[in-house]
Amino acid sequence: MTQQDEAYLHGDKVKKNEQNELFINHAKYTTCNLEDPHFHIAASKLKVIPDNKIVSGPFVLKVNDVPTPLAFPFGMFPAPKKNASGIVFPQFGEERLRGFFLRDGGYYWAISDYIDLKLLGEIYSKGSRGVKALSTYKKRYKYSGNFSFHYISQTISVTEGGGVQNDFRVNWSHAPQTRKNSRFTASVNAGSNSYRENNVSQNPNENINSTFNSNITYNKQFGSSPFSLTATMRHTQDIDKKLLSIDLPVINLGMQSIYPFHFKNIRSGGRHWIQRTNLSYAMNASNKLTNRLSADSIMPFNTETLPIILDKGVREATHAIPISTSIPFLKILKLNPRFSYNEKWKDYEINYQGFDEQNNVFIGDTIPGFSRSFSYSTGAALNSEMLSGTFFFKSEQIQALRHTLVPSLSFNYSPNFTPALFGQYQELSKDGEQVYVSKYNFGSLGNNRESKSLNLSLNNTLQMKVKDLKDTVKQSKKVYILKSLNFNTSYNLDAEQYKLSPFRVTAATSLWDGKVNLNMSSLVIDPYIYELEDITVSENGKVTVTQQKLDEFAWNVGQGIGQISSAVFNISTRLTPPGAKSKPPTPTNQEQENVMEDMQQNPNLYVDFSMPWSLNISFNLNYTKTGHQESVVRKTLTFNGDISLTDKWKITFGSGYDLETNNILSTTNISILRDLHCWELAASWTPIGYYTNYNIDLRVKATVLQDLKLSRRRSNFDSRF
């Protein structure tokens, strides 16, 4: 018996010539490392050319020494040093709407050591069919990435109840391995509007998310100069609203802060505030395209409407020159005054002729050509160093409580830019009054007011020092009661009403040494009250509330600091057996390093048979309420995990429950995995939802995954991508 890369060769008689070629009589070719392999290719004669190929005479596939119908008069098996091309066997199963299927079968092409390509197909008994192209590439110390394209033609459309629906999805990810003067990154996620609805993912987060986002960026640093260039293409697609926005391109030219007055002779000790004066420069040029014609009109995006969308694109460039300095005083405070000059360039402007009082519309023409406007703002921020206080306890268990606070108060001012001298508005007469109308947004009126606002933020952390029963050396440890508790609001001194902005609160902490994570990503408190005017109920039971927001604070009428208008809260935990830790062995070769890297990037694609069980639980709460309107609450409980019935049997599951509608989420999935030593069997079942289905996959397992004691459930480029 001998080993050739991933393969093991058995033979009764073996002959070797001077070229180290092997000639084997009554041979067995297998990837199972047992003395009596679970499966093998039995051949009467076999020739092995090292690092090249294996040539066989008549052969037959045997499983547990039982011959199968798979027999051929001759065969040739490539045996390269690294990658090898070959056939990818499909999964099979059944879906409720599309019928029985063969899926993800095709051909894998190892193009080179740096790139591969997988071409897969899928076919369903009720007529649907699709193709996939998947590729990964990597050049060590330079770059890595992956690309996938999925096209499917379905004879049953979930949204329309019948007919043919063609959908596609494109994903591309590219990242450099090292950072140099230039850097290119890409994250592309695009597809047809009906793709998500007609191809339900096993991942609950993908089904909840209704947007596709893409970002392709090129960065260039010009040597040791302070200048840098960034070119970006952005794409945002709301598949529910059929709304598409593309920034193609966005170019940013920036200059890092420089200190033009940094002279040594100003002051011998320390740096004077003049020396701290710095300025920078930023230019942003963009070409924005969208299929939204107005607030109520969205144009279909296709080849016929593309010229119209291109013609209505918004092309502009902005320039900003901020100047700031820092003035310390009272040892713990810093005053940071600033001034910023801004200029905007457009390739058009609107020339108004007047106001049509009969039709209540402005009359004007869009004039192509270069147009500019400018503005400026100033302000100052008063920042404090981190303030902290510690309260000591006499208790032996709880020793101290430490609170840290970082306050910040800032003032911002910008003048009234509606006069024509700033280039942004045109003065017109409307209903006998003088108004200022935007030269860039048709019919948009200026507020003809200055802007003066105060901004306040308070960032807090709270720690506790307790006795550590496990550590006899340090005997104490620090635990976070609150990792963060942040407040911020603002007050507009020039607003006619509603001068105080809503209070915004964020918080995060963890319990029991990080086993439970709590995160309040948003809590918005409206400080104003609402006056109820009317409540109507339609024939179909829809309740309509008519109300008016009053310019009066809630605490003046005994309603506390205000009403919670929105909140987003999450609590999550991962449960595992006491003392159980998943620690795969250290990689010993490049192939194992690649697998370990893929595991870190896609942990949900692997199953660890050494872990007896695990359970991930997440509770999500979304709350919105405006005045007297009925509150809208979305509470979901999602969970996923796995259980090892034996060392060879593993059950994985994932589902969720909507606590408001008392319904199980449609992404419920149950999988059974069987470790068959050199083979692995995976059966997956989705019992509810549009695409209730099951599929079964039986495949040979790679030796590198045997060494890591892990099973790869499925490719990260499959029907879920």
Write the layout of secondary structure elements.
Layout: E1 2-4, E2 7-10, E3 13-16, E4 22-30, E5 39-49, E6 53-56, E7 59-63, E8 66-72, E9 75-78, E10 86-88, E11 91-95, E12 99-109, E13 117-124, E14 129-139, E15 143-154, E16 165-176, E17 182-191, H1 195-198, H2 204-208, E18 211-221, E19 227-238, E20 243-258, E21 278-290, E22 292-294, E23 297-298, H3 306-311, E24 314-324, E25 327-329, E26 333-356, E27 361-384, E28 387-392, E29 398-414, E30 425-430, E31 433-438, E32 451-467, E33 476-492, E34 503-511, E35 516-526, E36 528-537, E37 543-553, E38 563-575, H4 590-601, E39 606-608, E40 613-624, E41 632-644, E42 649-658, E43 663-664, E44 669-676, E45 679-686, E46 693-700, H5 703-707, E47 710-712
Antiparallel strand pairs: 1-2, 2-4, 3-4, 4-5, 5-6, 5-7, 6-9, 7-8, 10-12, 11-12, 11-46, 12-13, 13-14, 14-15, 15-16, 16-17, 17-18, 18-19, 19-20, 20-21, 21-24, 22-23, 24-26, 25-26, 26-27, 27-29, 28-29, 29-32, 30-31, 32-33, 33-34, 34-35, 35-38, 36-37, 38-40, 39-47, 40-41, 41-42, 42-43, 42-44, ...
Observed structural traits:
single chain; 721 residues; mainly beta; 26-stranded antiparallel β-barrel; 5 helices; disordered C terminus
Walk me through the structure:
With 721 residues, the chain is mainly β. The chain has a domain of 80 residues. 4% of the residues lie in helices and 60% in strands. The protein has a 26-stranded antiparallel beta barrel. Strands 1, 2, 3, 4, 5, 6, 7, 8 and 9 form a nine-stranded antiparallel beta sheet that branches. Strands 22-23 form a two-stranded antiparallel sheet. It is globular, with a radius of gyration of 33 Å. The C terminus is likely disordered.
